[in-house]
Design goal:
Oligomer: heterodimer
CATH class of one domain in chain A: Alpha Beta
Radius of gyration of chain B: 12 Å
CATH topology of chain B: Ubiquitin-like (UB roll)
Structural class of chain B: mainly beta
Number of helices of chain A: 24
Distance between the termini of chain B: 44 Å
Largest sheet of chain B: 5 strands, mixed
Strand content of chain A: 5-15%
CATH superfamily of chain B: Beta-grasp domain
Radius of gyration of chain A: 22 Å
CATH superfamily of one domain in chain A: Aldehyde ferredoxin oxidoreductase, N-terminal domain
Chain lengths: 586, 79
């Protein structure tokens, strides 16, 4: 298949050895790239029971068939490992320019194994790969570390870096690129830290081939006008994700005070209008026609963001309506290398624990001063940071309050209240990496769309279809914002690779990817009992606003889950049936 | 025929239907519903995700009242 470089760079950090090897093209045909292909490699290479922070775990950087081509919105890189936060499979995606550069260096993927003897960074320039000393970088924030690397290797070098949180193995540490782009969730940065790897720097000067460049360019021009520069997508440019603050507020699903409510009276201070007033610039990833990034400034704080998830988890969920404080919190998390979703979520839990008299961490809803100290403490596990670094599940396990720890399988909820969007509850519970909004985002059809959010009817089917679709999207890899039909995706993929793909092929690839992720988790001991939600969702009604009085009745949830397993061809214990595995060639 | 006045905000890129303006006061027939507003603005149903009336998501059948604040949101993807 064209557009693949056909090569993987395998780096053993402990042995300081880097070797190129052929990409498994049979697997590429079955999983495309990105999420799917990365999970396939990890499933085959990392044995069950591997400690995520041990040198036996691997970190896989995977591109896709669209990476480096003219296909718009194809600039993301998938990073795959076993999660130290959840123990599940973990795939994250990160924007910026690194993925394209990796492809131009002549590789589809990099597999990082073992552990460097001392802090190091990996430098890749085309066929040359070297492990260099990172003694002077260790301990630096992600922003400064990236500055130093750029000064040393030139502005064209692209880097993935971790901050102090990753070095300190915090299970909510992320990997950053270009300061403000993050592979955020599940502690992927801690895996990198566990390998004594501060950064990966890359420069590439090679080309790559697509099968039918002329027709591809023609079709992309048409698609740009028909499917890209349209109202469905241009909101990403005019407003970006802060638009979602009001969508959630008006539908009663904006997480407020640790998900005690879905209605935040201060929402107008953190909505898209507030962000636009604070905006000082825009930014796009490589090959992107939409440019969703907003640079904002309030007082002394400047950041690219805050995105919706940060506004929701670090804003309304912590009772913070002060945009300057949220920008400062966001900036601190980015520099320290922390996931704002998990940090905001666990901070709000600690605030509620104080409110309920479970334990006083000195944090209160709406108290800015103590709130701003949290990221710095978590990143170095100092004072209350040592406890909060346990994550919501670990914190509640230590002090109590497990019913109100808003997480699934150890991954903290993102910014959508499932009592006001029942299918989102099912999506969180069945997501391969714990509570995640990027495996399926049914709120768009339900709370923000035409479907009734308060019925279980048809929701299992909706979540299954969206999970398949997103598995394909994150395997090709396209940005989450570009919602092309599978028909169009199949057509572009055919023009790019020269192999004929149909819509049915892509549906099958999506299903295969979901199932291999499931098999990974089953092998690690996860069962149907883990596909659940915190008790709060089932028994505590929301208090005010459009969803006042709403909860997700357990019987309705159980009904959705049962239907979901049947549609998936999974047993009652959540394991894929033999027939399903055979059907998918697993 | 009796008429009511409502204040309409078009979020994001939808403001092209107001020639770049974001907010306008609109006069509607007294018995108008939210769906009638879309028709009056020539705003196709598929170009919006939903309409909120006075800060709460509303159905397109919801009757509009004098002084209502209506906001129309474009479809969104991702998250």
């Amino acid at each position: 298949m064209h557009s693949y470089q056909g090569r993987v760079l395998r780096v053993n950090l402990g042995e300081n050895n880097a070797q190129a090897e052929p990409l498994n093209m049979d697997w590429a045909a079955q999983y495309l790239g990105g999420k799917g292909l990365g999970i396939k490699y990890l499933y085959e290479e990392v044995p069950a029971g591997t400690d995520p922070l041990s040198e036996r775990n691997k970190l896989i950087l995977m591109t896709g068939p669209f990476t480096g081509t003219v296909v718009p919105c194809s600039g993301k890189l998938a990073i795959i490992s076993r999660s130290p936060a959840t123990g599940t499979i973990l795939d994250c995606s990160i924007g910026g320019h690194f993925a394209g550069e990796l492809k131009f260096a002549g590789y589809d993927a990099v597999i990082l194994e073992g552990k460097a003897a001392k802090p190091a960074y990996l430098y890749i320039e085309d066929d040359e790969a070297r492990l260099l000393d990172a003694g002077e970088l260790w301990g630096l924030g992600a922003h400064r570390a990236e500055d130093v690397l750029r000064e040393k290797h030139g502005p064209e070098a692209k880097a993935l870096v971790i901050g102090p949180a990753g070095e300190n193995l915090v299970p909510m540490a992320c990997i950053s690129s270009e300061y403000y782009r993050q592979a955020g969730r599940g502690g992927i940065g801690a895996v990198m830290g566990s390998k004594n790897l501060k950064a990966v720097v890359i420069k590439g000067a090679k080309g790559l081939r697509v099968t039918n460049a002329e027709r591809l360019l023609e079709r992309l021009q048409e698609i740009m006008h028909q499917d890209t520069l349209t109202e469905d997508n241009l909101w990403a440019y005019t407003d970006g994700t802060p638009m979602i603050v009001e969508l959630s507020q008006t539908t009663g699903i904006l997480p407020t005070h640790n998900f005690q409510d879905g209605n935040f009276p201060g929402f107008e201070s953190i909505n898209a209008d507030a962000i636009r007033e604070a905006r000082v610039g825009k930014r796009a990833c490589v090959s992107c026609a939409l440019g969703c990034g907003n640079f904002t400034r309030r007082g002394a704080s400047v950041v690219e963001g805050p995105e919706y998830e940060t506004l929701a988890l670090c804003g309304s969920n912590c009772g913070i309506a002060d945009l300057e404080a949220i920008i400062a919190f966001n900036k601190a998390c980015d520099d320290l290398g922390l996931d704002t979703i998990s940090v905001g979520n666990v901070t709000a839990l600690a605030m509620e624990m104080a409110e309920k008299g479970i334990h006083d961490f000195g944090l209160r809803f709406g108290d800015i001063q103590s709130y701003l100290e949290v990221p710095g403490k978590i990143a170095v596990r100092e004072g209350i940071g040592a406890d909060l670094a346990l994550g919501a599940k670990g914190l509640a396990r230590r002090y109590g309050g497990e019913d109100m720890a808003m997480q699934v399988k150890g991954l903290e909820f993102p910014g959508y209240e499932p009592r006001g969007s029942w299918s989102m509850g099912l999506a969180y519970a069945t997501s391969d990496r714990g509570a995640c909004h990027m495996r399926a985002w049914p709120v768009a059809n339900e709370a923000y769309g035409d479907l009734d959010p308060f019925t279980s009817e048809g929701k299992a089917q909706l979540v299954v279809e969206l999970q398949h679709y997103n598995a394909v999207k994150f395997s090709t890899i396209l940005c989450d914002f570009w919602a092309l039909s599978l028909d169009t995706l199949a057509e572009i993929l055919t023009l790019v690779t020269g192999k004929t793909f149909s819509t049915t092929d892509l549906e099958k690839i999506g299903e295969r990817t979901v199932n291999i992720a499931r098999l990974f988790n089953v092998r690690e001991g996860f069962t149907a009992k883990d596909d659940t939600l915190p008790e709060r969702v089932f028994k505590d009604a929301l208090k005010t606003g459009p969803t006042a009085g709403r909860l997700l009745p357990r019987a309705e949830y159980d009904k959705m889950l049962k239907e979901y397993y049947i549609l998936r061809g999974w047993q009652e214990d959540g394991k894929p049936t033999q027939e399903k595995m055979q059907e998918l060639g697993l | 025929m009796e008429r009511i006045k409502i204040v309409v905000t078009l979020a994001g890129s939808l403001n092209k239907y107001f020639q770049g303006e974001k907010v306008r006061a609109i006069s509607m027939p007294a018995k108008a519903v939210a769906g009638d507003l879309l028709q009056q603005l020539s705003l196709p149903r598929e170009s919006i995700s939903f309409v909120a009336v006075n800060g709460v998501k509303a159905s397109l059948e919801q009757a509009l009242q004098e002084g209502d604040k209506v906001k129309v949101y474009p479809p969104v993807s991702g998250g």
